């Protein structure tokens, strides 16, 4: 595969919005377009509005585009809270109501995809459409653990029926619920070389892994409260299952898959989404877990044309 060049791009300066007494950071680009819904872009685990910079610049001529840092991430506040899909659903809903002022097309990657699905399914008055990029979240038949999916391959022992293996798995889980272990793991995963190593696993095109990208992921880990947000991921109650949410969903759904994602089997997972929402539209791209950052020149036109088709 021919590598593409990924020049450094300047993030668009953003603003702060007060939500429940906390600073929430967002970026807005482009102008309101008659007959075209605004877009709201929602990042994944450990990322921020910066991760959408290639999409914001690629789409803002056609749409009013917003990107937001979920509470606990990016430049948003990192209070000691129980972080969950419901919290982020409420944050996104209030943002659409108070700041955007009309229904938006929601586009979310990974964890952000799950938050967007919660919103579109449970607050349909806010969603004009839903775009999921390698979206996270459990299905009912999967008894998955509560660790963020980004960490599961790192910390979960291989699944075995063997009682000893199960005991080992329970011990590992218990260890990672201890504050000291969480702190040590946090100090480890936030190191730039570890961030690079993780990205090299999940990006197909390694040239997309720039020093700028690593810095953008590393920077929020220096914020007060960042370790508490990280620790909360180990005790977060599992949210509503994807299949239940899909059965409540009424807006159009587009799924954009990075097919080379090592954290999820895109084809297999696609079948589950299709089972519960057969009328979805989907495309498979030669990319890893973050197709919006890795192949923006392919993804942006697909997203744009789909939004225009439902507007």
Provide an overview of this structure.
With 311 residues, the chain is an alpha/beta fold. It is 41% helix and 14% strand.
Query: Which structural class do the helices and strands define?
Result: alpha/beta
Strand order of the largest sheet: 1-2-4-3-5-6-7-8
Classify the oligomer.
single chain
Residue-averaged pLDDT: 89
Give a brief description.
By secondary structure, the chain is an alpha/beta fold. It is 41% helix and 14% strand. Strand 7 (253-258), helix 11 (266-276) and strand 8 form a beta-alpha-beta unit.
How does the SSE layout of this entry go?
Layout lengths: L14 E5 L2 E8 L9 E4 L10 H7 L5 E4 L16 H16 L3 E6 L1 H12 L4 E7 L18 H4 L7 H13 L3 H11 L2 H11 L8 H8 L7 H7 L9 H7 L4 E6 L7 H11 L4 E5 L5 H4 L1 H15 L1
Parallel strand pairs: 3-4, 3-5, 5-6, 6-7, 7-8
Antiparallel strand pairs: 1-2, 2-4
Can you tag this structure with a few keywords?
311 residues, alpha/beta, eight-stranded mixed beta sheet, 13 helices, 41% helix
